[in-house]
């Protein structure tokens, strides 16, 4: 039995997306910037994909810019808003402690260039940004606030609409990394009051290497890549037409199935949470209510997450100990530390992330094998032995 439960890292390509992409490899393969028929056919397909993505997000097609993925979209949004703000004498940026490294590393780089960065703490356990903390951090020279819609590790969904309303009233640019949210929960850019939003196709069963940046009309956007007039002079380079087409098809499909799939996946999530909470000294990470339907994240005392992942893999279970972008690091997750997990507990983390293709059989397999693997590792662990001794002395 195999169970793929690492969908927050990447998802399988949907058959709908695959079929939509095929003609653009060997039939409609022209460069969309070319004037001949092949090029114009590709250009029409590009515009159609832009319109379809816009409809799914509640945006205007002219507000959608295609990128190579979420990280590029994050970089372009943040750097653009920061440097355009600096031109007006505003060099203050606010973000949260649990952001993806595509955001945190970008603002860290800007700090080295003279920007003042405020990193907001989050609530213990849940990882939620507090509106009162954000409001207190706002200054007259605040150029940008960037807060993710849903956390990639612990699944917490932030109060984006409320944050957006607060910032819109103060005319401060608001960007959200919605990579984990789009295709999994309702995302309407108007309702969320966001100025910029990043997404990535391979998180909702589209192809890897493609994403999009929403930028609201009237909000200036600076090019990150130079050398061509593509994407209305905002991103140089020939567009990846097959991938863009596949992403649009996958997003339409995910949006159409959102309500039904979300309810079913949330049911699987709740089964996993209820089952894994039965394991002694286990800790659920993230909010219980404001949580992505497919996210389950636990810490298990007395073991290392890396050993847990390797043994689960031998049982046919694909999982993660945190963000896919930091899976090679021996340091505990910055997200788990930010929500108050001690280093020794944060090291024993497990993230299970589900998709609309997840089955009940996979859930049953995970609930059968994970407790066994945890018990086996603890029996071999001197750390667990010390924990038990200390517990018996109390």
Describe it.
- With 394 residues, this protein is α/β, with parallel strands linked by helices.
- It has 2 domains: 3-10 and 258-393, Aspartate Aminotransferase, domain 1 (Alpha-Beta Complex); 15-256, 3-Layer(aba) Sandwich (Aspartate Aminotransferase, domain 2), CATH 3.40.640.
- It has helices spanning 15-21, 23-26, 37-57, 70-86, 101-112, 131-137, 160-169, 189-192, 230-233, 241-256, 258-276, 305-314, 334-338, 343-346, 360-379, 382-393; strands at residues 3-4, 64-67, 92-96, 116-120, 142-146, 173-177, 196-200, 211-215, 282-284, 295-300, 317-318, 349-353.
- Strands 2-8-7-6-5-3-4 form a 7-stranded mixed β-sheet, with helices on both faces. Strands 9-10-12 form a 3-stranded antiparallel β-sheet. A two-stranded parallel ribbon has the order 1-11.
- The radius of gyration is 22 Å and the shape is globular.
- The two termini are 42 Å apart.
Could you name the ranges where pLDDT drops below 50 across 5 or more consecutive residues?
none
How many β-strands, per DSSP? 12
Strand content: 5-15%
Question: Helical percent range?
Answer: 40-55%
Q: For the report, how would you describe the main beta sheet?
A: 7 strands, mixed
Instruction: Kindly provide the radius of gyration, computed on alpha-carbon positions and rounded to a whole number of angstroms.
Output: 22 Å
What is the mean pLDDT?
95
The CATH superfamily of the largest domain appears as Type I PLP-dependent aspartate aminotransferase-like (Major domain)
Order of helices and strands: EHHHEHEHEHEHEHEEHHHEEHEHHEHH
How many DSSP helices? 16
CATH topology value of the largest domain: Aspartate Aminotransferase, domain 2
- What is the C-level CATH assignment of the largest domain? Alpha Beta
Classify the secondary structure makeup into a structural class. Answer: alpha/beta
CATH architecture of the largest domain: 3-Layer(aba) Sandwich
Order of neighbouring strands in the sheet with most strands? 2-8-7-6-5-3-4
Give the tally of structural domains: 2
Termini, distance in Å?
A: 42 Å
* Shape by Cα distribution: globular
């Amino acid at each position: 039995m195999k169970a793929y439960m690492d969908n927050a890292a990447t998802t399988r390509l949907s058959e709908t997306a695959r079929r939509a992409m095929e003609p653009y490899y060997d039939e409609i393969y022209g460069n969309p910037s070319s004037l001949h028929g092949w090029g114009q056919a590709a250009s029409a397909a590009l515009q159609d994909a832009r319109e379809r993505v816009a409809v799914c997000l509640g945006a205007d097609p002219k507000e959608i810019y295609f990128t190579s993925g979420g990280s590029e979209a994050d970089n372009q949004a943040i750097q653009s808003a920061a440097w355009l703000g600096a031109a007006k004498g505003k060099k203050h940026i606010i973000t949260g402690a649990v952001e993806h490294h595509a955001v945190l590393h970008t603002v860290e780089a800007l700090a080295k260039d003279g920007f003042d960065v405020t990193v907001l703490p989050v609530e213990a356990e849940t990882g939620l940004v507090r509106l009162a903390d954000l409001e207190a951090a706002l200054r007259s020279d605040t150029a940008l606030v960037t807060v993710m819609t849903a956390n990639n590790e612990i699944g917490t969904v932030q109060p984006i609409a409320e944050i957006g309303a607060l910032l819109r009233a103060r005319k401060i640019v608001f960007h959200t990394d919605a990579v984990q949210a789009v295709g999994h929960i309702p995302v309407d850019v108007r309702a969320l009051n966001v100025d910029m939003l990043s997404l990535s196709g391979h998180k909702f069963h589209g192809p890897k290497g493609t994403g999009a940046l929403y930028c609201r009309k009237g909000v200036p956007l600076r090019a990150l890549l130079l050398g061509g007039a593509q994407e209305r002079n905002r991103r140089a380079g020939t567009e990846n037409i097959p991938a863009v087409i596949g992403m649009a098809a996958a997003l339409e499909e995910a949006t159409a199935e959102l309500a039904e799939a979300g309810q079913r996946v949330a049911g699987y999530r709740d089964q996993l949470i209820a089952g894994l909470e039965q394991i002694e000294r286990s800790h659920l990470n993230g909010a219980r209510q404001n949580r992505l339907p497919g996210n389950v994240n636990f810490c298990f005392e007395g073991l290392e997450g890396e050993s847990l992942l390797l043994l689960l893999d031998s049982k046919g279970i694909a999982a993660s100990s945190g963000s896919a972008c930091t899976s090679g690091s021996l340091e505990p997750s910055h997200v788990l530390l930010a929500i108050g997990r001690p280093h020794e507990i944060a090291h024993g983390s497990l993230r299970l992330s589900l998709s609309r293709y997840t089955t009940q059989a996979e859930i049953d397999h995970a609930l059968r094998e994970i407790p066994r693997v945890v018990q086996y590792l603890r029996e071999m662990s001197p750390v667990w032995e010390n924990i038990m001794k200390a517990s018996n002395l109390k």
